[in-house]
Each structure stands twice: as C-alpha cells, then as structure tokens.
Design goal:
There is one protein chain. With 178 residues, this protein is an alpha/beta fold. The protein has one domain: Leucine Aminopeptidase, subunit E, domain 1. It is 36% helix and 18% strand. It contains 5 helices and 6 strands. A 6-stranded mixed beta sheet has the order 1-6-5-2-4-3, with helices on both faces. Helix 3 runs parallel beside helix 4 and helix 4 crosses helix 5. The longest helix is centred in the middle third of the chain and has 18 residues. The protein is globular and about 40 Å long. The termini are close together. It binds adenosine-5-diphosphoribose. The site of adenosine-5-diphosphoribose (APR) has 26 residues, from strand 2 and helix 1.
Length: 178
Amino acid sequence: MAVLELMQGDITRLKVDAIVNAANSKLLGGGGVDGAIHQAAGPELLAECRRIAESRKDHPAGACPTGKAVITGPGRLPCKKVIHTVGPVWYGGAQGEPGLLADCYRNSLLLAQERGLESIAFPNISTGVYGYPKAAAAEIAVKTVNASLAETPGIKQVIFVCYDQENYEIYKHFADFG
Ligand code: APR
C-alpha cells in the first residue's frame, strides 16, 4: 500500500520517479509551478513538450485536454519523469471543475503506474493561476489519490508538495499522511 506524505517546498528539487506539473493545454510552459519546472529542467523539456504539442496540433482540445496527463523526460531535473496534467480553471464549481480536478490526480497516477514508476509528487493543481479554492482542491486531491491507489498497486509513495504556507496548513488537516 502506498505511503502518502506531505511536505512544504519546491517540487523541482525532488528526486522521485515522477513530479507532476500543473500545465496548460498547450504544454508550452507558463508561470507558477509550470514556469519553475521548465526553468529547472532547461530547454530540453520544452523541446519535448513542443514535439508532443506538434503531434497533437489537430486536436480540438489542444495538446493536453483538461484532466488528462502526458509524460516526458526530466531534462536537467533530478526526477526520472515529468507528468504534465492540466487542471480546470475555477468558474464557480458548476462547470465540472471538481471532476476534472479529480481526473488530473487519477490520470497522473494511472500514467505513472503504466510506466512502472513508484514514487510521485503532486503540486496543488489549479490552486494558483487557475483560482481553484485551496481547501476544496486539497480535499479532492487527497480523496482521489486514496481512491485511485487500489488500481495503481505499483505506486509506493505519493508526496503532496505545498509551496505556500496556506496550502500546507490546509493539507495538514488530513490526518492520513505517513
Ligand atoms: N513547487 C511546488 N509548487 C509550486 C511551485 C514549486 N516550485 N511553484 C508554484 N507552486 C504552487 C503554487 O503555489 C500553487 O499552489 O503550485 C500550485 C499551482 O499553481 P499554478 O502553478 O499557478 O498552477 P495552476 O493554478 O494549475 O494554473 C496553471 O498557470 O503557470 C500557468 O502554464 C500554467 O496556464 C497554466 C496555469
């Protein structure tokens, strides 16, 4: 059974099998954790993302639709892989945001499982630029990861990485962290 851990810090420094990026559907970088990951990874990561985007340029929902996940190498990052997922923009909660946010966590875990990865670190997807309320997002994150572990037996360690103090305090309320 996987161990769920909580930490406050910079996800780009983690030497885990996969770190998850809160990307946008174009996969061509941005600010927030997306910007931090690309900055630390170097141009190789953007080049690989560009290749994925080019190969999917005819897709109406963009290179990576909201809720889906794609995987790339790490560039210069210490992790083995980067899983890019696209969280929902918060429009008040009646546009399917909760389900799409849950999909980000579940699809990232399924992709990690499929690639034989055992440790994965998540940022607080959608809670920055995309404006998702932090407490609601935290609850979806923890509940979805717990619910997905039965179908991802290969996952041994899940780390929730909070960059800001507010998210860290919110996550600390969920007792089941190893
Ligand atoms: N390590 C871990 N978490 C980080 C880091 C970091 N180095 N930098 C920022 N964060 C946190 C933010 O504090 C926030 O809690 O990541 C969380 C997600 O915020 P954003 O990065 O703004 O992501 P999101 O809200 O999903 O918006 C995605 O922003 O950067 C663009 O290209 C991205 O268009 C996409 C959108």
